[in-house]
Write a structure and sequence with these properties.
The chain is built from two helices and 27 strands. The protein is mainly β. The protein has three domains: about 100 residues, no CATH class; about 130 residues, no CATH class; about 130 residues, Sandwich (Tick-borne Encephalitis virus Glycoprotein, domain 1), CATH 2.60.98.20. Helix 1 packs antiparallel against helix 2. It is rod-shaped and about 140 Å long. The model has no long low-confidence stretch (mean pLDDT about 90).
């Protein structure tokens, strides 16, 4: 019987060494979670209460936070706090702490196992549909151009201004107007045009003229200020110029001028801001992921398009998850059902782009465990050697 007890001890020590060696081997593996062996004595049920050895009861995973290592790579993601990335493995949802993602040939974001990162899809109103999941795909499409329709201008026109000395208006003669400023206007094809606004003092207020690429558009548009120096006419401060043809096959353009923030004070002519809408076409420059998990595609025309919001999941008992691949786990009855959420919300951690979570293995602790397991193995081997000597002595009795 003592042989069997000591043999169970050898097996237990060997298992402990195997688990410890696996932890040490993965000390530099991103997202790795260490394990520990848990043992229990084997109860014999005899009246004297002597046990029958030891047995392995559980290999428990330790889901503590690993350190965050900065990589600078945009698709390297780490979770600081609770939560798992949700990935799709041919229709099966798995869960991972390893955020080393890349792109496949069609632009889908996936890990080294080919499991695609799951996100909440973006909606037209700028929100995200948290009721469904979809694969994150980095679009390579060109951001389409948008024709300019409004210029928001904030300037100050001097209250002391007088009407131009020379008439009629000539955009090439500064004596025929008081002030001017220019901006860029885009047509429906994304072609840039130079739009220049000219301001002239009139007997009853001011007049604004629009000149696009040297062509005068329509007639002067009148506007006026109150005695407090703010726009009084038109009431909404918006001047409407007629439609014009930008050429090159683009659609006709109508560009209004919003002067609602413009003033007439005693100071000099000042341009505080000019904000035209519209844009040229743009190509994808980069993909950025913020701390809340929103993935943005940044284009060369300044546009930022949300591609989705990274979905996170958590479990009532993460230690009950079952390892199914090099980087991922799947839910079990013991772990409980996945609780989906969003980064930084509720008890979920934040997402850091350009960083990876390292292994949570403490090498010093593992080396101590290895020494302990080694001593345990030697002690049980000595028990077998002692029992062998006792048995040999009994056999030699005559």
């Amino acid at each position: 019987m003592s042989f069997q007890v000591a043999l169970s001890g050898l097996n237990a020590a060997s298992t402990d060494l195997q688990i410890t060696s696996n932890n040490i081997a993965n000390a530099n593996t991103y997202g790795f979670k260490e394990s520990r062996a848990e043992f229990a004595d084997v109860f014999s049920g005899e009246a004297n209460g002597i046990g029958n050895g030891v047995r392995l009861t559980s290999v428990r995973q330790q889901f503590t936070q690993g350190n965050v290592e900065i990589t600078g790579r945009q698709l390297d993601l780490s979770i600081s706090g609770n939560g798992f990335f949700v990935v799709n493995d041919d229709g099966a949802l798995l869960y991972s702490r390893v955020g080393a993602f890349g792109l496949d040939s069609t632009g889908f974001v996936q890990n080294a196992e080919g499991e695609r990162l799951q996100v909440y899809p973006a909606q037209s109103d700028g929100s995200f549909n948290t009721g469904t999941l979809t694969d994150l795909q980095i679009t390579t499409d060109i951001s389409p151009p948008l024709a300019s329709t409004l210029v928001d201008m904030n300037i100050n026109l001097p209250a002391s201004a007088t009407a131009p000395a020379i008439s009629p208006f000539d955009p090439n003669d500064p004596d025929t107007y008081n002030q001017s400023t220019s901006t860029v206007l885009f047509d429906s094809l994304g072609v840039a045009h130079t739009g220049t606004y000219f301001f002239s003092k009139a007997p009853a207020g001011w007049e604004a003229r629009l000149v696009v690429d040297g062509n005068i558009i329509g007639t002067p548009q009148a506007f006026d200020f109150s005695n407090a120096g703010i726009i009084s006419s038109p009431a909404n401060g918006v001047l409407s110029f007629p439609s014009f043809d930008p050429g090159a096959g683009a659609a006709n353009m109508v560009v209004d001028l919003d002067l609602s923030a413009t003033t007439q004070f005693g100071s000099n002519f000042v341009v505080n801001s000019i904000n035209p809408d519209g844009r040229a076409s743009g190509r994808l420059r980069s993909v950025e992921i913020d701390v809340t998990g929103v993935a943005f595609a940044r284009f060369s025309n300044g546009q930022s398009v949300p591609l989705g919001k990274i979905a996170l999941a958590n479990f009532s008992n993460p230690e009950g998850l079952q390892k199914v691949s090099d980087t991922s786990w799947q839910e079990t009855f013991t772990s409980g059902l996945p609780q989906r959420g969003e980064a930084t919300e509720s008890n979920f951690g934040g997402i850091q782009s350009g960083a990876l979570e390292t292994s949570n293995v403490d090498l010093t602790e593992q080396l101590v465990n290895m020494i302990t397991a080694q001593r345990l193995f030697q002690a049980n081997a000595q028990v077998i050697s002692t029992m062998d000597s006792v048995t040999q002595t009994i056999i030699n009795i005559r």
